[in-house]
Amino acid sequence: MSEYEELFNKAKEFHGHVCPGIVLGTRLAIAGLRELGMDPHENNRNLIVYLEIDRCGADAVQAITGCSLGHRNLKHIDYGKFAATFVDIGTGKAVRVAVQEKNRAQHDQLDPKDVIKLLGEIPESEILKIERVQISVPEDDIPGFPREKATCSVCGEQVMDNRHIVVDGKVLCKNCGITSYYTVLES
């Protein structure tokens, strides 16, 4: 079994089914790790991955790299692009890998099983754009114990890792100080 097949199967098992996103995420993760000189079969403690999408391929990247939100070495930056930046915090080296299908219109006319096979076999240069990039990982984004904790003066909830704001001298969480993605309903 090839390394691609082994890692693809790991991603497929983690995600629960096969789709083009799992194929692309597998290829993206393999390329990113290779460019940093990291082995996908090892725990790469210095790896942080910034994902630009929250679709199927994100599961492949998580399964192959071992990075996760809970470990604080997987970050989601919602750009809606099938791309990820792989950062070695030990060396500062970073690479951004983006899916750039040059013949996507042709793929849309194929049977889904044929698309999955094709995406797994197409030369990397025809499907991925790989760029060396510079990224400054904020100190508060580094994995490990929280460096700072604050308590919101409005809701009383704890805010970790310097994610709070200060307005008129009061410590606030972003929900109370800026805007919230939810509305509390009266009981």
UniProtKB/TrEMBL annotation:
Pfam short name (any one): FmdE
GO MF annotation terms: zinc ion binding
Keyword Transcription regulation attached: no
All copies of domain Zinc finger DksA/TraR C4-type, residue ranges: 151-181
InterPro entries, alphabetized: FmdEsu_dom (IPR003814), tRNA_methyltr_O (IPR053194), Znf_DskA_TraR (IPR000962)
Keywords for this protein: Metal-binding, Zinc, Zinc-finger
All residue ranges annotated as the Formylmethanofuran dehydrogenase subunit E domain in the record: 14-112
Cited PANTHER family: DEHYDROGENASE, DEHYDROGENASE-RELATED
Record-given protein name: Formylmethanofuran dehydrogenase subunit E region
Species, as recorded: Methanosphaerula palustris (strain ATCC BAA-1556 / DSM 19958 / E1-9c)
